[in-house]
């Protein structure tokens, strides 16, 4: 064994990267986690935001007990929204107790070399050789702005992830495009800061998640299905608790599940806050946008009958989600990207999150096309970390640096004893 080559390098220190790091450390692998812990959550989530997920579904993946969100928070009760700052603090606490010290640098380039080996260049100037690389870059590289808005200058259009504070919009008219939690909460936080938000959405009616049911849990489970990481119900229970099953579904079915499961909806606790301060333009889509001579923006909308209406504002915020695309992971060498097999725009993964290049794994949103919608949420981090590190451990003990690519194998010991 070449001591100058580490077992695994993890790109990213968000919930998925930290979870992989925790499992790799427990398994005794030589692991380096590159990134500032919880950076995206600290810098790209609005102050005053709350998590949509319940406490039991907000834990990072840990191979040992006692490191869940409820253990950190002293038993956070169901139905009490979790402030994003509290979740960030939990992630830092988890890192301190479970993860090899993350390195606050950046990965500039990942190249595939014979072996298989990976050469990873860091912003510090260091070059690292690794048998395996886990790409866990979160959602940041994949923010989606509709084409009708993308041509506007940055002074007039931004994505919801671009804003930690909204004070600069006080007294201004701001159009928020979208109907999901991000759009609804952005509109409310804008109003809280004294802005005049306009919520613009295709849906003719906003959807809201139900208040968590308390009491009569057994009867509720029989009638509505068990509670799980994606909510409640038997169908979504499979998507939440058995994502390995999703991988065997046809590609188009998986795509529909990712797009439509837990569609745009607001948390129950946000409903009363979306009051008369927020103007609603529902059942309309953006068909054109342009900068006006006075420096404002004109947005042309159209309803299902083809009737058009103009909206004028000082700024537009696209709360229009994230679309994973391998080509937008700039740190991957272009030649490496070209060699990856793909499912749509995402990498095609085997049963262990390994891509078509041996030793290269993807976790988080980029794995949703293979394992389904749970990979869009923190709740999927434990499953992903167990699978990846279980496979790394098994193949390295067998004397292979990565195993046979794209070939499903049986459950590892780590998975069986889950």
From TrEMBL:
<dbReference type="GO" id="GO:0050660">
    <property type="term" value="F:flavin adenine dinucleotide binding"/>
</dbReference>
<feature type="domain" description="FAD/NAD(P)-binding">
    <location>
        <begin position="7"/>
        <end position="210"/>
    </location>
</feature>
<protein>
    <recommendedName>
        <fullName>FAD/NAD(P)-binding domain-containing protein</fullName>
    </recommendedName>
</protein>
<dbReference type="InterPro" id="IPR050982">
    <property type="entry name" value="Auxin_biosynth/cation_transpt"/>
</dbReference>
<dbReference type="InterPro" id="IPR023753">
    <property type="entry name" value="FAD/NAD-binding_dom"/>
</dbReference>
<dbReference type="Pfam" id="PF07992">
    <property type="entry name" value="Pyr_redox_2"/>
</dbReference>
<dbReference type="InterPro" id="IPR036188">
    <property type="entry name" value="FAD/NAD-bd_sf"/>
</dbReference>
<dbReference type="GO" id="GO:0004497">
    <property type="term" value="F:monooxygenase activity"/>
</dbReference>
<keyword id="KW-0560">Oxidoreductase</keyword>
